[in-house]
Amino acid sequence: MKRKLEPETMFKIALILAAAASFVFSISLYFSAEETDIAGRLNGIYVGIWVPSILALGSFIVGGKKQS
Questions:
Q1: pLDDT-derived band of residue 4, with 50, 70 and 90 as boundaries?
Q2: Does 16 fall in a domain?
Q3: Half-sphere exposure of 26 (CA within 13 A, CB side)
Q4: Neighbours of 54 (CB within 10 A)
Q5: Per the domain annotation, does 32 fall within a domain?
Q6: Is residue 12 situated within a structural domain?
Q7: What is the C-alpha to C-alpha distance for residues 62 and 17, in angstroms, rounded to an integer?
Q8: 3 within domain boundaries
Q9: Which of 55, 44, 60 is nearest to 19 (CA)?
Q10: What are the pLDDT digits (tens) for 5-46?
Q11: Global pTM?
């Protein structure tokens, strides 16, 4: 018997998957850059900053829904 997921649960799962994908992508960008490729390393750091931003946006949206 399959259980249907609530929309809020699906939203939380999507947020966690987006944050995990951003984390993996940032690590791959950072470590695939050459030793002398500063721009490639900075791109990895920049994408890594997305992780807390994605999670913060998600908690803001979920928290706002619960108060209304």
A1: confident
A2: yes
A3: 16
A4: 20
A5: yes
A6: yes
A7: 16
A8: no
A9: 55
A10: 888 999 999 999 999 999 999 999 999 999 899 999 999 999
A11: 0.82
For residues 55 and 19, is the Cβ–Cβ distance under 8 A? Answer: yes
What is the count of structural domains for the chain? 1
The pLDDT tens digits of the residues spanning 46-60 come to 999 999 999 999 999
**Rounded (to 5) percent helix, strand, coil in the chain:** 80, 0, 20
The answer to whether residues 44 and 33 touch, using CB atoms and an 8 Å cutoff, is yes
How many residues in the chain? 68
Amino acid at site 50? W
Range of the domain at 63: 8-67
CB contact set of 5 (below 8 Å; sequence gap of 6+): 13
